[in-house]
Write a structure and sequence with these properties.
The longest helix is centred in the first third of the chain and has 8 residues, at about 25-35. Helix content is about 5%, strand content about 40%. It has about 180 residues and is mostly beta strands. It folds into 2 domains: about 25-135, Electron Transport, Fmn-binding Protein, Chain A (Pnp Oxidase, Chain A); about 140-170, no CATH class. It is elongated, with a radius of gyration of 23 Å. GO terms for molecular function: nucleotide binding. InterPro entries: Split_barrel_FMN-bd, T3SS_YcgR_PilZN.
């Protein structure tokens, strides 16, 4: 005799084509899907001995399908080329430092394919779980203030301007970002 499992009214069952993303909210995915192209990214290749970290940039996102990253050409990418293959496990970190509430978005995936037609691109499978970590402790506030750094001369003498420019943002507590 077959028995059906009872569900409580608060329990939702994903539809067959939906993916349940543990610890990942729709807000996180919406934030990920609207990140600007050319956002700084790190690709960590998972190898048996030690992970390899490579710098890259985001080319684009095809929601629920793929993340497209630039394929680098520097000496670090050349040294890792034996591991840059279809199916290779990777961790992708997107660093959106221009956003006042800057976050690092990280997820595990696999290399889907390499494309060399329109550009040198590395395509990874769309994520199953997303982690979001604040890059800064306090939110940055955009400003545009003139600033200069002065070198102090001997007492009583005028100061010398070493550098001048503009402050672009500040935070409540200040300090390094």
């Amino acid at each position: 005799m077959l028995r059906h499992k009872q569900t409580t009214p608060n329990m939702t069952i994903p539809k067959p084509r939906e993916r349940a993303l543990p610890h990942t909210t729709e807000i996180d995915l919406a934030y990920l899907n609207r990140i600007n192209c050319n956002t700084e990214a790190q690709l960590q290749i998972l190898t048996p001995l030690r992970p390899i970290r490579l710098k890259t940039r985001l080319i684009g996102i095809d929601p629920d399908n793929a993340i497209i990253l630039a394929l680098g050409q520097d000496k670090y990418w050349q040294a890792a080329q034996d591991y840059i293959t279809q199916g290779q496990g990777v961790v992708v970190r997107l660093i959106n430092s221009d956003d006042p509430e800057a976050n690092i978005l990280a997820f595990r995936s696999q290399i889907k394919t390499l494309l060399n037609n329109a550009g040198r691109w590395l395509v990874v499978n769309y994520l199953k779980e997303l982690q979001s970590v604040a890059l800064r402790q306090h939110c940055r506030i955009p400003v545009h203030l003139a600033a200069s750094i002065h070198e102090r001369q001997a007492e009583g003498h005028s100061t010398h301007v070493c550098s001048s420019g503009f402050l672009q943002d500040v935070s409540v507590k200040g300090g390094p970002t």
